[in-house]
Amino acid sequence: MKERFIDKMRAEGIEAHPFMAVRFPVLTSRVNYRNHRKICVIDGEVGFIGGMNIAKRYVKGTGKQAWRDTHVKIKGAAVYGLQRAFLVDWFFVCRALITDRSYYPEIITEENDCLAQIVTSSPTSLWPEIEQGYVSVLCSAKHYVYMETPYFLPTDPILFAMRTAALSGVDVRLMIPYKTDTKIVEWASRSYVMETVKAGVKVFLYKAGFNHSKLLVSDDAVATIGSTNVDFRSFENAFESNAFFYDESIAKEVKEIFLRDQSESIALEDVRSLTDRPFLQRLWESIVRLLSPLL
């Protein structure tokens, strides 16, 4: 974000502060310890969380391809979790401790059985909370786990859990973009993808644009949507936030989202250029994989 744009917002009365300012803006998407959360809270009563940033391409696409994303609107007590996450970050950037109870108004909602949990993770946390959430879902699944992520550079625990679930007979499906916005990440990702395929994971390549969604759903019982990619940077080096829903109806809705996206995808096994790659290409991908924790 350009300095003059920030100055313009401040001139209009909008408070704006950088989160660990980047000295070299061209490296913003690759720097560690960035705040990758996408949180919006309105009057302490309505919240939004998911994969969408505030940028034109998230609405109109990049010009070369359409943009596909998943974002959710939350009402009820779970908004308190979003409010707390924002206010903790706000204190970090400007040292303003906001404790006014008006930021947590009494929320009256219709009776429902939906349990929602706002989970944040960061490189300063004692535990990798969101990564552990993904591993827990994969290890406890009985029937299926469907996942969407724009970048697939999984940590060892995630890769192990995916392989274990697939080998135990769980229907594990992974959806990634057919064309990514970063070629080197695409190369590094392929060896991981092929490793999951060997264990029985079904991989689908989304073709109707760039799929930036970050979601997971399992057994019509639990689902999560948020900012976390299935990669090293999100799980280990970024400040992330996800909403976990423990509710059958919401899980089924997220499942339907996945299946609609699957209808606009192609199975990896049908892409000969990926399944029959020459030795030198596979060697190059393995070499690039060694750099994946840095990507």
Description:
- The protein is of the alpha/beta class and 295 residues long.
- The protein has one domain (3-294): Endonuclease Chain A (Endonuclease, Chain A, 2-Layer Sandwich), CATH 3.30.870.10.
- The protein is 37% helix and 22% strand.
- It has helices at 3-11, 57-60, 78-94, 129-140, 156-167, 183-199, 232-237, 248-263, 272-275, 279-289; strands at 39-42, 46-50, 67-68, 71-75, 115-121, 144-148, 152-153, 171-177, 202-206, 210-211, 215-218, 222-226, 230-231, 240-246, 265-267.
- The chain has an eight-stranded mixed sheet, with helices on both faces.
- Helix 4 runs parallel beside helix 5, helix 5 runs parallel beside helix 6 (183-199) and helix 6 (183-199) packs across helix 10 (279-289).
- It is globular, with a radius of gyration of 20 Å.
